[in-house]
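Input (structure):
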């Protein structure tokens, strides 16, 4: 199949790399340097100088754009895609996008909202790596306009990229759970770094636990501030829930309540073990 990529950054480059083994990949990026890098490093088969050229070439187009850029892009450029083109959104929030774009998309295009739950703490096409998708989770957020055979095709492409588990959620369900499993983790990593004591050189005293917890503090700030604010109601709710959980630990430690502390630890450990069992199924 002829696959198009709009936005040749970390995710766009990684998708291109993963799909090029079985498909022909065309790419458009505003940065000529990014496009040339993708071509020079064999991530793509051809650079398209504009969206019109990409629309002529591609049957399926991945929109690898920041959330706030997707609606303006589609409004301005959907005229360039030929009938029956499948457009695949991969952004990390969904409710606003589905609400904004579903009424506006041309009837002869199929816009499918998805979220490849994968990435790394690096930014840009130079860090593209198809291995980030291996055995990871992929979410599809269907709308009434989506054709069932197109949804099946998107599933197959996700499997081609290496994803293991594919789930279907509504836009609201997606944003609720992602606020917890992704966005809250980034807030926690950032807050930990902000709370770090200034009197000690951290590098001399950290182990793997601290490194693991704060890895995602190496954040793509322009992207993540959009994600936080686009999903703020859900994220604030999850922050409040976490604060309440921390307060329970604070209270147990302050009161020297060994029984309560052990009980909470064992319950958390059990839940983590259950998650591992689900992953290995």
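Output (sequence):
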């Amino acid at each position: 199949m002829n696959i198009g990529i709009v936005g040749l950054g970390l995710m766009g480059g990684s998708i291109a790399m993963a799909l090029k083994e079985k498909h022909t990949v065309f790419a458009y990026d505003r940065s000529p340097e990014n496009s040339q890098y993708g071509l020079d490093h064999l991530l793509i088969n051809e650079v398209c100088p504009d969206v019109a050229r990409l629309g002529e070439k591609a049957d399926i187009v991945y929109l690898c754009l920041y959330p706030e850029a997707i609606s303006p892009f589609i409004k301005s450029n959907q005229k360039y895609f030929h009938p029956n083109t499948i457009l695949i959104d991969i952004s990390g929030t969904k409710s606003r996008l589905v609400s904004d774009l579903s009424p506006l998309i041309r009837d002869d295009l199929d816009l499918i909202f998805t979220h490849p739950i994968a990435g790394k703490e690096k930014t840009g096409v130079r860090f593209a790596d198809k291995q980030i998708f291996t055995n990871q989770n992929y979410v599809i957020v269907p709308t009434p306009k989506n054709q069932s055979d197109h949804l099946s095709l998107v599933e197959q492409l996700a499997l081609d990229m290496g994803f293991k588990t594919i789930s279907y959620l509504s836009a609201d369900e997606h944003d609720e759970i992602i606020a917890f499993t992704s966005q809250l983790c980034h807030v926690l990593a950032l807050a930990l770094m902000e709370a770090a004591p200034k009197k000690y050189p951290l590098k001399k005293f950290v182990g793997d636990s601290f490194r693991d917890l704060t890895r995602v503090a190496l954040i793509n700030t322009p992207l993540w501030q959009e994600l936080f604010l686009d999903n703020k109601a859900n994220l604030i709710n999850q922050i409040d829930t976490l604060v309440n959980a921390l307060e329970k630990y604070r209270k147990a430690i302050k009161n020297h309540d060994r029984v309560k502390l052990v009980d909470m630890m064992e319950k958390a450990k059990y839940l983590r073990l259950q998650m591992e069992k689900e992953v290995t199924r």
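Notes: The chain has two domains: 2-169, 174-280. The first strand starts at residue 2 and ends at 6.
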